[in-house]
Amino acid sequence: MRSDGKQSAPFALKAAAGLGLAFMHLPIALIFVYAFTTEDKSYQWPPPGFTLKWLEVTWNRPDVWDALKLSLQVATISTVIAMVLGTLCAAAVSRTKFFGRETISLLVILPIALPGIITGIALRSAFSIADIPFSIWTIILGHATFCVVVVYNNAVARFRRTSGSLVEASMDLGANSFQTFRHVILPNIGTALLAGGMLAFALSFDEVIVTTFTAGQQSTLPIWMLEELVRPRQRPVTNVVAMVVVLVTVLPILAAYYLTRDGDQVAGSGK
Asked: Which of 17, 109, 172, 186 has the greatest number of CB atoms lying within 10 Å of its CB?
C-alpha cells in the first residue's frame, strides 16, 4: 500500500502492462533506427552503421514534398469542414429534441464504425455515378466523412456537460445569439473543439484506405510510403518519411489529451 492510502498494483499487472506497451511501441522505435542506417537495400539487424545522409536525401526529393503538401492541404481543409459540421450536429443533437434525433446521431458516427474499405468503395461508386473526376476535393470529401465523427463526439460530450441555464441567463441579460455563443458557449466547448480538430487532423494526415479509393493518380504522404514499400528505391528515405508522419500525428494527439483531461470542469455543469 502506498503512503497516500491507495493500494499499489501487483507486480505481475505492471509487468504485463509494460510488455504490452513494449509490443506496441518497439516497432515504432525501429522506424527511427532504420531512418539513420547506412544499409539501403534491406532491414538488417543490427544496422551496420548510422548516418544522417538520408535526412538530406529526403529533403531534396521533390516527390516527398509534393506528397507532404497534398497531405497537409487535405488534412487542413478536412479538419475545418469537420469542425463546422461536427459542431453544428452536436449542438442540434444535444440542445434540441426532435423526431429521429438518435437515428441522426447514429448516422453521424456510422462512417468511423464502418470498415474503411466499405467507405472507400461507397465513395468511389458515388463519384463515378455522379461523374465527378478524382481530385484533391474527392480526397477531402472522403476524409471529412470520418473526421466529422471525431469532432462530433468531442463536442456533443461537452455540450451535454454544459448547463443550459448559462445560455438562458445570457439571453435574460440581453445578449443576442452571437454574443451568447461567443462569450458563453465557445469558452465552455472551445478546448473540446480544438482537441477534436487536432485528432481529426491526425486521423486525416495518416489515412490510407479511403484515400486509395478517392485519390485517383494523386499521392498523399501515406500513399507515397505504401508505393515506396512495394517498389523501393531507397528504403531509409521511406523510414525518414515514416518518422515525420509519426511526429506529425503524435503531437496533435498529445495536445488533444492535455486539452481535454480536465474536461469535467465545465462552468455551470453542476447547476
From this structure: 109
Quick one: 163 exposed, middle or buried, by C-beta within 10 A (0-12, 13-18, 19+)?
Answer: middle
3-class state of residue 54 by DSSP: helix
For the whole model, what pTM was predicted? 0.74
Read off the pLDDT of residues 47-61 as tens digits, 9 standing for 90 and up.
Answer: 777 777 777 777 888
Domains and CATH numbers, the chain: 12-51 (no CATH), 61-268 (1.10.3720.10)
Rounded to 5 degrees, φ, ψ at 102 are -65, -35
C-alpha cell at 47: 544496422
- Residue 219: CB partners within 8 Å, gap ≥ 6? 63, 66, 67, 70, 227
- pLDDT tens digits along 143-202: 888 888 888 888 887 777 766 666 667 766 677 667 776 677 777 777 777 888 888 888
The Cα–Cα gap between 162 and 185 comes to 8
Give the CA dihedral 95, 96, 97, 103, nearest 10 degrees: -80
What is the chain's Cα-based Rg?
23
